[in-house]
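Box 3.1 A note on notation
Throughout this textbook, protein chains are presented in two layers. The first layer is the amino acid sequence; the second is a token string describing backbone geometry. Keep the layers aligned when reading.
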Amino acid sequence: MNILIKKAKIFQRGNKHHLKTRDIHIKNGKVLKIAASIKDDSAKEITSENLCISAGWLDMRTNFREPGHEYKEGLANGLRTAAKGGFTGVVSMPTTYPVVDNNTAVQFLKNNSATTVTEVFPAGSISQGLKGKQLSEFHDMTQSGAVAFTEDTALLNNTNLLSKALEYSKTIGALVYSFPYDPNLVSDGQMHEGKTSTLLGMRGIPNVSEEIQLSRDIQLLKHFGGKLHVVAISTEGSVNMIRTAKKEGLAITCSIHAHQLSFTDEAVSTFDSRFKVLPPFRSEADRKALKKGLKDGTIDAICSGHEPEDVEEKKREFTLAAFGISSLETAFSAANSELGSNYPLEDLVDKFTTAPREILSISIPQFEEGEVANFTLFDPSKKWTFQREEMLSKSKNTPYNNSKFTGKVVGVINRGKSSIDN
């Protein structure tokens, strides 16, 4: 590798190059030089109008469906998709078949992604087989490379097991993920419970189905300690609860799915199953609360919530279709387009870079000579139209077809490799 990035604006708070436009010479996977102007005729030049660069983005919640359901999204193709979306690292969920609940399963993911430009950081399941009865092999999985433990969308009713997970995680410095959702309160819910669900005659998923689980998890965290990261919050009540918990000094962080910023429950009025996601698209008041939570720092990170589903699962009647969205390729563009000039770009970049890595205790790539190159290049002002047929994801269940975006990924550099074709 011999790459020369020309005139890129660097985003990295605390770094001497922050918000400065620089040339960056990368050779053999490392930063050789950063300067106002660099010339090397032997290097492959990367240029783009309004080019920006940051530490490599890290997605905190991705589903790749391998092993078990590779026809929806295999690991290799999923990682190529992640790179196209600007991610040099992804946290993969354990809800595969078999479940990632032991060190062999973690090693499978690490070994099969050892040479890709995007790195996998596996999350292990809290319980063996996602059955909610016995703790998984936390220590062994951590030693093999697991960075967090979660049941993801599988309901963990066993509060005793969650309390043990929080307590045990303290001894090994692990992070527990919570996906706050109680299907027992939903009764086959299909979309957000509100005026639109009533008009459409569909069963609703009330805000309380998220908030009651979150309240429980916060109380357990308060009593037993540990570190808790809440993924995919979607309601105003959840934002308020986490804001209060942080003020009380609890070790709690949270993230949202980028697509929650784009739509409300009214989008479901077309009965298009591509808008069927979990958590569901909520009310406008909830969406405004998410934006406020981003601005005041209550919400720490933005992730893709990538959940690929094949045509057989999605192209059905809305009530029969699976929840899910292919969103690795649209996460940044969707967030950037929706937040726009009302939200500082450097803050948005932090939600994809610094915050996820700090939460997961993963080192942050630095813009320093001699450091390993792990960067994402993007143009925040690029206007473009997203086309479903151009997606790399094997499953193309997206509500963004023909959407006009502002902000586009140029490519990524990591592990001595580049996804940039220029």
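The mean pLDDT is 96. The two ends are 14 Å apart (CA to CA).
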